[in-house]
Amino acid sequence: MRSFVDNIAQWSRFQKNRNLVIQVSFLIFVALLGTYLFSRAFQLELSLSHFRSRAGFGLSHTFLVDYTSNDSRWIAYFTGVVNTIRVCLVAIFLTTILGTIMGVARLSKNFLTSRIAWLYVEVLRNTPLLIQIIFWQIVFLQLPQISEAITFGNTTAISNRGILLPWISDNGGAQIWFIFLGIIAAGSLFLSYFLNKREDESGKYFSLAGKKVNGNLTGIIFFVLVTVVTFFAFGRPVSMDIPEIIQNNKGTWMQTGGFDLSPEFAAILFALVIYTGTFITEIVRGSIQSLSRGQTEAAEAIGLSKYQSMTLVILPQALRSIIPPLTNQFLNLTKNSSLAVVIAYPDLFMVSRTIMNNSGHALPVFFLILLTYLFLSLCISLVMNLINRRVTRIGT
Amino acid sequence: MRKIKYTLLISALFAMAAFSYACASEDSSEASSSGGSNTLQEVLDRGMLKCGVNDNLAGFGVVAADGSFSGFDIDFCKAVAAAILGDSGKVEYTPTTASNRFEALGSGEIDLLIRNTTWTASRDRELKQDFTAPTFYDGQGMMVYVDSGYNSIDDMEGATICVLQGTTTELNLDDRFTGTGMSYTPLTFETNDPLQAAFEEKRCDGWTTDKSGLASKRASFPASAGGPEALKVLPETLSKEPLGPLTRDNDSEMYDVVQWVVFGMMQAEESGINSSNVSSIASNPPNPGVARLLGASFEGGEVQDFSFGIPKDFMQKVISQVGNYGEVYDRHLVPLGLERAGSLNAMWTDGGLIYAPPFR
Q1: Where are the beta strands (DSSP E) in A171-210?
Q2: pLDDT band at A394 (very low <50, low <70, confident <90, very high)
Q3: How does DSSP assign A72-125, residue by residue?
Q4: What is the pTM of this model?
Q5: Which of A94, A393, B269, B285 is most solvent-facing, going by the fewest CB within 10 Å?
Q6: The CATH fold of domain B37-139+241-355
Q7: Among candidates B273, B202, B312, which has minimal Cα distance to A253?
Q8: Is A12 on the interface with B (CB under 8 A)?
Q9: Which residues pair with B140 in a beta bridge?
Q10: ipTM
C-alpha cells in the first residue's frame, strides 16, 4: 500500500503540478499582503465628501478658471488641474522644438554647433530636475524689483513679479468673434489648398500687379481681410489690454492689465523644457543615426539641399522611431511637473497638498491625485498613439 | 537532488504564506482594537516613547548635524518619557510634515504628536485625536520690510503675500483679506527656503506665519538682505494658535499622563521648583501641595497616588531631567526673541494664560 507521502512524491513529479503549487502559494501570499495593507488603509477616512466644502484659500494663478476662495475645494482642485495642463502643453510644444533642433545640431559637421549641443545634453541631462527648477526660480527672482521695473513704452513691463505683455480684453462679443474667426481660418486653409491644387493641375494662378500670387498667400490675404472687416462689423469686440505698473495710495506696487507671465510659471516651464529637451535631443539623434547613410546620399544625389534632405527625407523617416520614446518623455514631463510645488506654482499637486493639510485626510486625496495623473498620461498616450499610427502608415 | 530542491522551495513558500497570515491576523486584531487602545501600556512594554516632532523649526524642534533633536516641543517629549519610563533619553523621534502628522498618529506609527499643532474644533472632532493642555499660545502674524511703510494689514490692499503651506495659515490669511474686502495674491510655498529666497528679493510684500516662526526667521535674516533690522512684525494677530500635544481618541491613560505632565511643569514653576532644587525640595517638601506634586511624603505622611499608572514620583524625574515650564521656555524661546513677560505665555499670576489645575 502506498503511503500519503508516496502519493505526494508521485504527484509532484510533474513539472505542471509543481508549478501549480508555487503559483498558488505565491498568490495566497500576495492576497494576504494585500488584505493586510487594505485593512490598515480602510481604518482611515476614505471619502472625498469634504471636497464640497468651501476652499477658503487663495491661489496666485487662476488661468481660465474664475476661482475665488469662496468656491468649493473641487473648483480649487480643478484650477490646479488647469494650471498643470497649461504648463505641460506649452512645455511639450517647446521641448519638442528644442529637442529636434538640438538633435539635428548634435549631428552637424560644424564643430562648434555639435559641441554646443553635446555640452547642453551632458550638463543638463545629468543634473537633478529639482535643482534646475530652483535654479530658474532664483534666476527669475534676479529680475528688477517691482519698484524699479523695466518698461518698454506702454507695452511690456519686466520685474520679478512677472513679465507683463500686451493682451486683448473682451469688450463684449469676443467669444462669437473668435468662433467666427475659427470658421474663417478653416475656410482660408481650404482656399489655399484648392488654389494650390489648381495650380499643380492646370498651371493657372492669380497675378497682382504683374506678380504671381500663389495659393498660400491668397489664403493669408483673405483671412486678414475678413478679420479686419469683421472686427469693425462686430463693433470692435476686443481691445488692447495695456499692461501697467502702478502704486496705490498705501504704497503697494501693483501690476494691472496685460498678460502676466509670472516668474513661477516661467521657472517651471524653462526647467521642464530644457531638462526634457536633452532626452528628446538624444532620441532624435539616435533615430537619425539609425537610418541608412544611403538615404542622405540619395537625397544629395538628386540635388536636394541639406535643409531639404533633412526635412523631406531624413526626419519623416526618423519620425517612426522617434514617436514611441517621445511619448515616454511627454509622460515624464507631465509627471515631473508636480515638482512645481517647491516654487509656489499652484499645480494640481500643490492645490491638493493644501486641501490635504486643511482637511487632514491625506489618503483619499492622494488617490484622487493618482487618478488625475493617470488620466492625463492616458490622454497623452492616446494622442501620441494616433500620431504614431499615422506616421507608421505613410509609405506602406 | 532536483526534487529535494523543489520540495524545499515549496515548503519555504508555504512557511512564508503561513507566517504572513499569522502576522496579518495578529496585526489586524491589534489594529481593530485600536479604538480603545492603551498606548501607555504599549510604551511601558516597549520601554521607548515614539514621539512625532518637527525637525526644522528653530526653537521648537530642530535636528542637529549629529542627528540629535532639541527644542521646546522636543523637551515635552522628553518630559513625557521621563514621567513614564523614568529616563528622558528613551524617546524615538519621528520627523513629521504638516500634512502627514495626523495620519502618523492615527496609524499608530507614533505614540504622541508634539509638533507645533494648533488646536481647532475640526481637528479635535474629525481627526479622532485629542488635544491635551496647550504648551504655547501662538498667533499668526505678518512680517514686512520696514521701508514698505505698512503699519497695519489694512494698508496691504493688493499686496503679494508669501505663505508657507501646511497649516491653517492660508485660511486665516484669506479670512483676513477677503473678509475685509481687500484683494491680495497669495504665493504659497511648500518649503521654507524657496519662500525666503522670494521674500529676500521682494517678490512678495509680506510674509505670514505664526509669530513664533516669524521671530525665528527675523532673527536669522541674512545681513546681505538687510538683516533683522530691515524687517518688522506687524502688531496685529490674525488668529489664535494654541499649540499643544495630541494623543489618539479614547486613549485616556496616555492622554491624562501627557496632560498632567504639562500641568505639572507649569505648577512646578508656580511653586518655585526647578531642576536644580527639585531633589532637596522632594526630600523635605515645604507644604503638602508641593509634596503631592512631587509624589513625596510630607512629614512622614502617606504619599499621594493619582493612579496615572506610572511611578508616583514622576514629576521629580520630569523636573530633574527636563526642568519646569519656565526653564524650558527660557532655554529655547527666549534666544529667539520671544519675550515671555506680557505675552499670553506668562504665568497666570503675571497676567498670562499658563495655569495648571490643582494637584489633589
Answers
A1: 206-208
A2: low
A3: BHHHHHHHHHHHHHHHHHHHHHHHHHHHHHHHHHHT-SSHHHHHHHHHHHHHHH
A4: 0.71
A5: A393
A6: D-Maltodextrin-Binding Protein; domain 2 (3.40.190)
A7: B202
A8: yes
A9: B210
A10: 0.75
